[in-house]
Every structure is written in C-alpha cells, then in structure tokens.
Write a structure and sequence with these properties.
It is built from 14 helices and 4 strands. It is mainly α and 249 residues long. It folds into 2 domains: 84 residues, Recoverin, domain 1; 93 residues, EF-hand (Recoverin, domain 1, Orthogonal Bundle), CATH 1.10.238. The protein has a two-stranded antiparallel sheet. Strands 3-4 form a two-stranded antiparallel ribbon. Helix 2 crosses helix 5 and helix 9 packs across helix 12. It is globular, with a radius of gyration of 19 Å.
C-alpha cells in the first residue's frame, strides 16, 4: 500500500512525524530501489532488451526509429542518468514506442495498470502535458528522460519548478485555486482508497485552501513561481515530502 497524503508537496506548516527536533532536513538520496518504484521507469525497463548486448547497440538503434533522438552522450550531459541507464531506458522506450514518440493514451494505459484501484485518467492527462514541453501531443525520448532526471535526481529547486509547471495547467505562469484543486483531485482519484489515513471527499479543497493561505502573499488569488518556490523552500514539511514524487510519477 502506498502511503501518501494525496499531494505532491505534502501539507504546509505541519511537522513530519519522522522529523527529530534539532535535526536539519537533508534531501533523501535516490537509491536504485527508489528508482525502480517509479511507474514510468518500471514501464520502460519491463520492455528493455537483455543487458548482454554490446554497449554500442543503442547508438546503432538510434537510427532505427522514425524520430531519431539525440546521441546518448549528449543526453548523459543533459541528465543525471549514466550511459548504461540511458541505454536501458532507450531499449524499453523503443520497444514500447517504435516511432520514437509516446502519446497521451500510452500514459493513461501506464497509470491505469499501476493504479488499478482508482481512476488515473485525469492525472495521466495532466502529467503528460507537463512532460509535453512543446504541446504538440507527443513526447520524444529526450524530453522523457530529461523530465525523469529532474523528478528522480534533480535538486529540490528543479523539482519544485517542475511541480509548478504541473500545477500551472494552462501554462500562463500562475497557479489558481482551480488548477491546484484539479491536480489534487486527480491524484486522490488515482490513489483510490489506498491512502493512509483514508481521505475525506472535501480533503482536496481543504488542502488547496491551506496552501493558498500560505503561498498567495499578496492575496491576488494566484500563486507566482517566486511565491511558490519561496514558500515551499521555507516549509520543511513540504521539503521532506518531495520524495512523494516517487509515489505518483
């Protein structure tokens, strides 16, 4: 059972139960085990070819798809994945998406498989749009692994900027209450009853109200990227809960 409060950022102003007094919070180090809990990584690696093939195979395979990604060396420089990890991710990506592009329906299928107890359709839609940087309805391998690298191995600042982009549904540079509520509800719907403690139906709205009370400094009804980053980085509970990305990505 996954334990989550249903948001990507935890609850503002509430001290984590595991936090000891006087102990400075440190960003959790992502282990291989944690990496394997990521739904998108599981999906990709389940389709990856055996690892016994020559390491140059992936370089040769790059020309075998209709959309040719950048070289693995360039992607290694852009991400925090090793070349071997990128080779494994690429093999799986190519097997699942022979055209070199992944569409929204694929995201919905992935999350319906990993969260069968709930309805993942809406969350998969929002997550796909966050990965689809140019908004053309398809995600290239490069965009896919760059996004994964931020979420799984990025700095707290990078993860928070990515989270802001997820919440900013219409990409106008602001988060409204309606946008944050839509994301929160989609996560609750996906998690179903597999959250602890069990959530009330009005929990998403209460959560959003608490966030906006803390984040919307000038009370103009929207949260800017600066307000979002400043508030989150000053709230140790939010910082500690950044590892929740592992539960819903």
């Amino acid at each position: 059972m996954k334990v989550s409060d249903g948001s990507l950022l935890g609850e503002p102003g509430r001290t984590p139960l595991s936090k000891k007094e006087g102990v400075k919070w440190q960003r959790p180090r992502l282990t291989r085990q944690a990496l394997m809990r990521c739904c998108l990584v599981k999906w990709i690696l389940s389709s990856a070819a055996p690892q016994g093939s020559d390491s140059s195979d992936s370089e040769l395979e790059l020309s075998a798809v209709r959309h040719q990604p950048e070289g693995l060396d360039q992607l290694q420089a852009q991400t925090k994945f090793t070349k071997k990890e990128l080779q494994s991710l690429y093999r799986g990506f190519k097997n699942e998406c022979p055209t070199g592009l992944v569409d929204e329906d694929t995201f919905k299928l992935i999350y319906s498989q990993f969260f069968p107890q709930g309805d993942a359709t809406t969350y998969a839609h929002f997550l796909f749009n966050a990965f689809d940087a140019d908004g053309n309805g398809a995600i290239r391998f490069e965009d896919f692994v760059v996004g994964l690298s931020i979420l799984l191995r990025g700095t707290v600042h990078e993860k928070l900027k990515w989270a802001f982009n997820l919440y900013d549904i219409n990409k106008d540079g602001y988060i409204t209450k309606e946008e944050m509520l839509a994301i929160m509800k989609s996560i609750y719907d996906m998690m179903g009853r597999h959250t602890y403690p069990i959530l009330r139906e009005d929990a998403p709205l209460e959560h959003v109200e608490r966030f906006f009370q803390k984040m919307d400094r000038n009370q103009d009804g929207v949260v800017t990227i600066d307000e979002f980053l400043e508030t989150c980085q000053k709230d140790e509970n939010i910082m500690s809960s950044m590892q929740l990305f592992e539960n819903v990505i």
